[in-house]
Structure formats: C-alpha cells, structure tokens
Amino acid sequence: MDExxxxxxxRREHYIPNKRVGYPxxxxxxxxxxxxxxxxxxxPGYFMPWNVFxxxxxxxxxxxxxxxLENFSxxxxxxxxxVFLRNAGLVxxxxxxxxxxxxxxxxxxxxxxxxxxxxxxxxxxxxxxxQTVDNIILxxxxxxxxxxxxxxxxxxxxxxxxxxxVSPIDQPIYFFVMIFTxxxxxxxxxxxVHRLIHCDPLYRLAHNVHHKNTNPGPWSGLAMHPVEHLxxxxxxxxxxxxxxxxxxxxxxxVHAGLSPAPGHAGFERVVLQDGRAVDLDCYAHYLxxxxxxxxxxxxxxxxxxxxxxxxxxxxxxxxxxxxxxxxNRIKKT
Length: 333
Hints:
single chain; 333 residues; mainly alpha; two-stranded antiparallel sheet; 13 helices
C-alpha cells in the first residue's frame, strides 16, 4: 500500500498524514443527532472495532480465565499467580503481535511510520541502553503487577461482601450499559490523570519515565513509573460506587492495559496481506509524545479543544501551540 495516497514525508522524512486529528460528531454544538447516531454504529465508530474487541476480551478473561469470585475473599498465591499470568499473557500476546510485525519482521518497513528511526539500542536514558528492553521491563515489572494488584484488591472487597453484586441475567440492560460506557469513563479519567502528572513534582517524579519515548513503539504504551501505573489503573475504582459485577473492572483494566499498544505503535496504519490496512488512529497521541504539551486526551471527548491544548497535525495548530507555550513562559517571568 502506497503511503503517499494518505500522507507525505517532511524534510526530516517524518510521515505526516493528510487526515487531520478530529473528534466524532457527538459533543458538538449545534448538536448533530443523526451524525452522532451514525458514528456510534458505524465502522469505525464507538462500538467497532476497538470497544467491542476490548469488551469481549474482558468478558472472556473473567468468565473463562479467572478464578471464581469466592477465591478472592482470601487470595492464595495460586489465585494471585493465575491473575498475574492471565494479564501478562494478554499483554505479551497483544503488544508482542504489534512489535513482531512492525519492528522485528518489519513487514512494511517505514511505510506509514511517523518517525523513520527505529527504537534506540544504545541510549543511557534507557535500562541496558535499549528502549525496547526498558519498556518491556517496566510493562511487566510494574504495569502488569499493579494492574493485577488493583484487580485483586477490588475483587477482595466484592468477595467479602463490601459491594452490592448484580447479575447480568437479572439486570442485562444495566450490565450492558456499564460495560460499554467504559470507554467514555476511561477517556475522562485518562485526561484528568494525564494533566495532573504533567505538573511538577509528578512529572519529574514519574511521568518523565514514559516521555523518554519521544519516538514510541508498542511497548512504550505501558512503560511507566509505578506511581503513574497506580494513577492510570485507578480508573477501575469508579465501579466501587455502583452495583457491581466483577466483569466491570476486568473489562476496564483490560481496556486500560491493552489499548496503549496500538496507541503507541508509531505507525498510522498496519498494512495487511490482502492490501488493506487498519487505521490505528494514534496520530494525536504520537503528537503528544513528540511535543509534550498537547493532546492530553485520547479518544472521544474533545477535552483538548475545550481547554485549548488541541493539535490536529496542521501547521496552523502547531503555530497556536507554540504561541500558547510562548505566552505561558512570558506569564511565568
């Protein structure tokens, strides 16, 4: 597939898509109810392909690959190990698939790759000098561990009667609404946490670890400091406030744990063997890694537009960002 049909390379050979970063016609004025409804049920749209994919994975993870809820009332080493290995297996398979195809096999070389450079292998800022090794260690050593800890902690409360449990059979509409609104909640939560950790001292303490990846790859997605992992996976705590089913937090954590892989892939599209391509819709977050001070949100809610930190990839947006940063520096002095 010819990338020049979808974008161009600048003088540094960085790929710039023709398509501008945008938001769905949902939170707009004047309202567009017909367009909003079309987007919800279109492909790509709210449900398909990503939202349904993560919901299905979360349901499978809970109903087929998790110990029974009563096992969490006093979690044994076996229970903890099973949950950790399940989560590690999901991450290893999903992140590894993107890395294998795009970075080891290099099936499409730099076609649709935003930054033409490959991950660094001799840089002092990374453990063992390797960007990929550093990211993998942080992903499993901190990310999967804290993900597992949050999950077991909440299920401990549920198993010991601290939460009101509901049945998907008795309350199917409520169950459906809760599992398919996870993306909306995670979008808001991610923005709030992301803005917070861009402020000192949290940036210097924690978030700068993630931002070592100015040229991210799939494994960069969960490469975070433990403090950031705690804040990031705290998205699951909202389900403590509502009638509860274990699938709610498993889906939320699967969504949080896996969605960073395509979001940090470093490619606009993954080209398939039949000549088609999957649009990863990750340019907005790539721009955040490139420029730091823009596109803090990453999804449906146009929060960056509302708060003046939006960058759609155009020269005009870039100038507005530079003017904003210049104005902030003048105010500080």
